[in-house]
Amino acid sequence: xxxxxxxxLLTSSALVLLMTPALAFFYGxxxxxxxxxxxxxxxxxxLCMVSVLWVLYGYTMAFGPDVKGLVGNLSWFGLxxxxxxxxxxxxxxxxxLAFVAFQATFAIITVALWTGAVVERIKxxxxxxxxxxxxxxxxxxxxHWVWGSGGWLAQLGALDFAGGTVVHVNxxxxxxxxxxxxxxxxxFKEGEAMEPNNxxxxxxxxxxxxxxxxxxxxxxxxxxxxLAANAFVTTNxxxxxxxxxxxILGWIHRRPSVLGAATGAVVGLVAITPAAxxxxxxxxxxIGAIGSLIxxxxxxxxxxxxxxxxxxxxxxxHGMGGTWGALATGxxxxxxxxASSSGLIDGNWKQVxxxxxxxxxxMAYAFVVSWLLAKALKATMGLRVKEEEESVGLxxxxxxxxxxGGV
Amino acid sequence: xxxxxxIIRPEKLDAVKDALxxxxxxxxxxxxxxxxxxxxGIALQWRAGxxxxxxxxxxxxxxxxxDEDCQGALDTICDAARTGREGDGMIFxxxxxxxxxxxxxxxxxxxMNGK
Lengths: 407, 115
Fold this sequence. Notes:
The complex is a heterodimer.
Chain A: H1 3-28, H2 36-63, E1 66-67, E2 71-72, H3 96-113, H4 124-147, H5 152-156, H6 164-182, H7 199-218, H8 226-253, H9 258-272, H10 284-306, H11 314-332, H12 350-380, H13 387-392, H14 394-399
Antiparallel strand pairs in A: 1-2
Helix pairs in contact in A: 1-2, 1-3, 1-7, 2-3, 2-4, 3-4, 3-6, 4-6, 4-12, 6-11, 6-12, 7-8, 7-9, 8-9, 8-10, 9-10, 9-11, 10-11, 11-12
Chain B: E1 2-8, H1 13-22, E2 29-35, E3 42-45, E4 50-53, E5 56-65, H2 67-81, E6 89-95
Antiparallel strand pairs in B: 1-5, 1-6, 2-5, 3-4
Helix pairs in contact in B: 1-2
């Protein structure tokens, strides 16, 4: 047991936990004012629900003893046998419960991420039902594949430092599937302006995400040493490079938009996530910059040409940013940073193929299962609010509250 | 008695208020409103690309005064609020049945602007 590692991992857990309320503000600022509380509540409700599901059965499904490389068995149900002593296989220098806490915060934010696709029209009950099913049938298995002891993608040698495939590709692709089943917001096809109600909230959310992301990536070293420092600096560099490039892209098009710069920084954080503890600091600049270009043009295409109302572009930001990041990990990983892994710049071109396999498997599984779950819920409890409730806004119709009340 | 509803550019509010005060019109109410006319909308930046907003922010000033003071106030507002470009706004004049000062319960023209 190492007290420095333990202190860092518990601190990181708190940092990552903050990212979910940060996401609530990031998304909340971008919707119309009648849906601000509803959008915030999606992330906050998921924070509460998934925290409980995680200690009940999520942790053992993701990290419990392996069943054929696909999922953990239920022997750690309710955290049975998981206590203050270190685990034999995960984060062996800290209490097992510290690792449980750290991983809980990842599960929570991954579930909250795809809510950006369905804002302003989904029933809150349907959202929670989908979230619980998706957490159980999509998040826990994929986390096991990549990070679980014996998981099949881990055995294959896939590199994912802090969640490029598990968190971002997974959430981005699932967001797309759910948005396709749910359908567009009223007025979307008619080109009605969907004005963001509070861009300062978006910037506040992005800034808190950036702050929390140091726990996400540097915490994923699971030790308080050089590797954490490497992940910390690559994280900041990639976010900054991506935010800067997005600002320039907006400027070339018209103006350097604040909403754009905040979005770009988040995309840079997404892109560096799988790579942060495998690549040298210089590589964070192309990783962030190229991630920004890919997401920007995907977003332009999605909003202008695709006809798909994936409202807050979870697929463009997280799906595409995560895909590029996972691929870039295979390109820029080097033993000079992390002795356990090498990529194309070390001459190990096979790593790129392994990364592609991990991305493809995650995309296929997440898309298909999310689509089926959404279809099943649509046929049973229904996914959308009534037209009248949608036009009044979800704050009033789903939660009975106003974001800005009083005089 | 007449009521003037002047919808003007927000950046002209101070100029119009100062001009009205300088001719003795002290009481007015202002509201933030959104409107459109020949100026049409503007394009704003979304995360990537842009979207159009058809209603632009304006300020509405409401003033109630005696009939004979009305024309002077209208001229003053027009002079102070004009830029010569589309979007300078509109002014409407309506008849008013009565006016009451809450503090004293005084009614009619006696409690009007400039009296």
